[in-house]
Predict the 3D structure of the following.
Amino acid sequence: MARPVIALLTDFGSRDHYAGTMKGVALGICPDATLVDITHDLPPHDVLAGALELAACFRYFPSTTVFLVVVDPGVGSTRRGIAAEAGEYRFVAPDNGVLTLVFEDLPPKRVVELTERRYARATVSRTFEGRDRFAPAAAWLAKGVELSALGRPAGSVQRLDVPRPRVEQDRIEGEILRIDRFGNLVTNIDRKTFDRIASGDARGVIDIQIGPHQVGKVVSTYADAAQGELCALFGSSDHLEIAANGSSAAGVLELGRGAPVRVARRA
């Protein structure tokens, strides 16, 4: 029988003990678990960044994976902790919208509040619920406890207002949602939306502008652009990216999240 998988996504970083402590708690409950670090380097308190990273990766994990997601600026407040089942996956997270994009892809079958105290640590810190509430819940799920045992049905859950591209007859108005480690500027324009105005080969028929800057061309891969050249392409998440071959487009353009992106059909 395959070992259960718990995948962790947090804004805790690697300098402090927080992520490692959660792993210790989880292994104390479910010692057979395989623990996978998605990332712990999200910008602090950035719930949207957590939602985007989770949406980009969760489908590549084995079915029955438990995702332990702790990006929690409301720690210790009245915001709820929840556990959810969506598709063949289960998720444990604060109820702050960090699961928004997952739920858009896979509407949840069940969502419960983490109210059953036997599946939390005896003392719950108001500043570290990741250790005392979320990690135990994820570990108990990995160990085989039913989702419904963790608490009462949650009802409606919080959703983020994620920026969407606006499509007009001959153009798309979008924006930058995230910047990856390499400085690639990832937009909210997916391939399907892009193809509504640029089906097939877009080179020579499409203009792309980010902020005040014109993007030279659409390419298939980074190496199709000259060293340092600004280009556009569809990355691994199938969203339009603005990149600079061998360099950081974010650094070159001095732009970040929220920067406007326009894709227009040439007259």
